[in-house]
Amino acid sequence: MATFLFKTEPSEYSFAHLVRDKRCTWTGVSNPAARIALRQVKRGDRILIYHTGDEKAIVAEAKALTNAYADPAQPGLNDRGEVNFPVVDLAPVKLWATPITLAAIKSDARLKDFGLVKQSRLSVMPVSPQQEVVLNALSTGTKHNRIHA
DNA sequence: GCCAACGTTGGC
DNA sequence: GCCAACGTTGGC
After folding, report:
1. Half-sphere exposure of A138 (CA within 13 A, CB side)
2. CATH at residue A76
3. C1' of C9 to CA of A9 (Å)
4. Residue A14, SS3 per DSSP
5. A59, A91, A107, A115, A131 from A46: Cα distances, Å
6. Which pLDDT score is estimated for A141?
7. pTM over 0.90
8. Amino acid A121 CA to nucleotide B8 C1' distance, rounded Å
9. In chain A, where does DSSP find H-type helix?
10. Contacts of strand C, CB cut-off 7 Å?
């Protein structure tokens, strides 16, 4: 199972919307690098949800209900035989008690190569196993701090 | 196939 | 609101 991070502008479609909808099809990814990542998503993969704009934090996680597949509105393959406009269906898993802020991610040297830091416009990106370990630690770490505050 | 001009994203 | 860092477009 792999892990990915999906960005969204919460005023357009937030994790709360996904909870309300129970599932959604993640469409509209046009950036080529983001599409490369999106094509790799498989059913069961863990999807971290990042809110852009005022929030700038990983706020929740979801899971892929499907492999990446061609957007029915824009079917067809590209010249490399890949799905041209990939989409994937998601279901919510849980809202995190404490988001991991972009500031926290940027300030951690172990995440200096993370797509979120390196390429701020990238909207879908893989999370390597090593990066996921660090993010998991940041997530539980903040909760831990809260309990003891 | 280059590249200048323009458009977009998203952090600041 | 600004602008850096990309992408895209279209004239040549």
Report:
1. 22
2. 3.10.590.10
3. 26
4. coil
5. 14, 10, 24, 16, 13
6. 65
7. yes
8. 9
9. 15-21, 32-39, 102-106, 115-118, 129-147
10. A 30-33, 119-121
Residues 58-97 of A with CB under 7 A from strand B: none
Query: Can you name the residues that pair with A69 across neighbouring β-strands?
Result: A87
Distance A30 CA to B9 C1' (A): 12
Structure tokens, A13: 């479609």
Q: Is the pLDDT of residue A119 over 50?
A: yes
Domain range for A73: 3-146
Say if residue A34's pLDDT is above 70: yes
Q: Could you give the number of structural domains in chain A?
A: 1
- Stretch A24-29: mean pLDDT, rounded? 96
End-to-end CA distance of chain A: 35
pLDDT per residue over A52-105, tens digit each? 999 999 999 999 999 999 999 888 888 778 899 999 999 999 999 999 999 999
Minimum CA–C1' distance nucleotide for A122:
B9
Which of A32-46, A69-83, A103-117, A118-132 is the least confident region? A69-83
